[in-house]
Design a protein that fits this description.
Length: 177
Amino acid sequence: MPNKTIYVSDDDLALYKRAQELAGNLSQAISTALRRYVEMEEGRLEGFDEITVRVGRGTGRKQRFSGVLLAEGGRSNKNGYEAFKVYRSRTGKFVLHADRRNQFNSIQTADGEELNYTGWRSWIGSFSSNQTWSMAQGEATLHVVDTLEELRDLIPEELYALVEEAADQPAVEDLDI
């Protein structure tokens, strides 16, 4: 295996030392970091962004990938709201982030009365100064599919039409102007 010499400034010495402690093998740590850097930079040059979304119930956990937003939209009904974002990943897959949130279920007034509202009143309530709002937990999911057809049943028809239109467009169009 060939040897490579890396010159480290005095200011960065502590960083390299900490990397060695964490990785155990500084060469492996440097290779891993460079691999991630090259992947992200190549993606950025191709027009892709680093996307971080939350998935799961409540605040959930974070998931990250390289992609470009194709379309976003949502729909609501008496039970809540669904927000959708559809991305194309760097590998050509379609990534759907769906965030389903329930509307406010009830409002507890200062005298202990519980008011249940539907529709727009569930968002506005009575606006008295002493009240407690109760909001049901939502859930966000991430679906990865290979084809547009697999995406069709997961999103509203109008959003699917937008995704279908944008799917074959380049992530970035360079203009010679």
